[in-house]
Design a protein that fits this description.
The chain is of the alpha/beta class. The protein contains 13 helices and 8 strands. The longest helix is centred in the last third of the chain and has 22 residues.
Length: 288
């Protein structure tokens, strides 16, 4: 039996939690934002209505309000996000003990062996989606595939509240037309370099000579080729050990220019790292 991997992504997680706690947020454009007074006035998350106005994560509150004057601002409640994240992952653990969190709102699940108890990967995904919506009051999009990279593409493919199956039979028709920047770990710099080489889609990346990619990107070129061609064999790693380090990353859609833009980017990453630290009951202090 081939592997069956799910990638579960809670839709607009911070905003969804705030709406679950305060139903008044469900029918208005809303964004969860850091404190303007403490110079953390950036968008941490936004709901679907705010997305329609072009509100984006990590932009300033001022910029978001300019796009959507009626935007409702909600202050973040990180302790609640941790509680909801734990509850969601407890639902995942009903179906498999192979759960690998990928941030506070995403997780990979290896349900290969679970099919004997709960049905196909698609059926398990449908059960999880229904459980999360009924018990927690938020939605989750799920990708079902034969490796981690394609399951991540599947959860991003249709949102919100959707399931996409990317199988060995259909992956070329779904994955290959996608922009190369959609592939996991392809950041803006790598995307620009690939486009400069004439590689604009994942299919074109898969068709590119592996040796050419290695010559241009080093060891990462081999990884890029494997990911695009559906050859990712990385396992789902359950969290059984204490983390050796805490980190955060985010690919901004344009180069950050100037002190103010860089500060906003750092603030956004710091918020995410703080959330991960709190989840482990840890604190940090300035390095000197």
């Amino acid at each position: 039996m081939g592997r069956v991997i799910l990638h579960c992504d809670c839709n607009s997680f911070f905003a969804s939690v705030e709406a679950a706690l305060n139903p008044a947020y469900k029918n208005v454009p809303m964004a969860v934002c850091g404190s303007v007074e403490e110079r953390h006035g950036i968008v941490l998350a936004k709901n679907e209505l705010a997305k329609k106005y072009g509100v984006k994560t990590a932009e300033t509150v001022w910029s978001a309000k300019k796009k959507c004057p009626a935007l409702v601002i909600a202050e973040p409640h990180h302790d609640e996000y941790l509680k909801f994240s734990k509850r969601v992952n407890e639902i995942y653990l009903r179906y498999t003990d192979m759960v690998e969190p990928f941030g506070i709102d995403e997780s990979w699940l290896d349900v290969t062996a679970s099919q004997k108890l709960f049905g196909t990967g698609l059926e398990i995904a449908e059960r999880i989606r229904a459980d999360v919506k009924r018990e927690i009051g938020i939605t989750v999009s799920i990708g079902v595939s034969f490796n981690k990279v394609f399951s991540k593409l599947g959860s991003d493919y249709k949102k919100p509240d959707a399931i996409t199956v990317i199988s060995e039979e259909n992956f070329k028709s779904i994955v290959y037309p996608l922009p190369v920047g959609d592939l996991l770990f392809v950041g803006k710099k790598t995307e620009d370099a690939l486009i400069h080489m004439g590689v604009r889609t994942i299919g074109e990346l898969a068709a590119t000579s592996e040796s050419l990619l290695i010559n241009r990107f080093g060891k990462a070129g081999e990884m890029l080729h494997k990911y695009a061609a559906g050859l990712d064999e990385s396992p789902v790693c359950a969290e059984h050990e204490d983390a050796k380090s805490i980190c955060s990353g985010f690919t901004f859609r344009h180069d950050l220019v100037g002190r103010d833009e860089c500060r906003r980017g750092i603030d956004f990453l710091a918020e995410d790292i703080g959330t991960k630290l709190r989840a482990r009951g840890m604190k940090c202090e300035p390095f000197s």
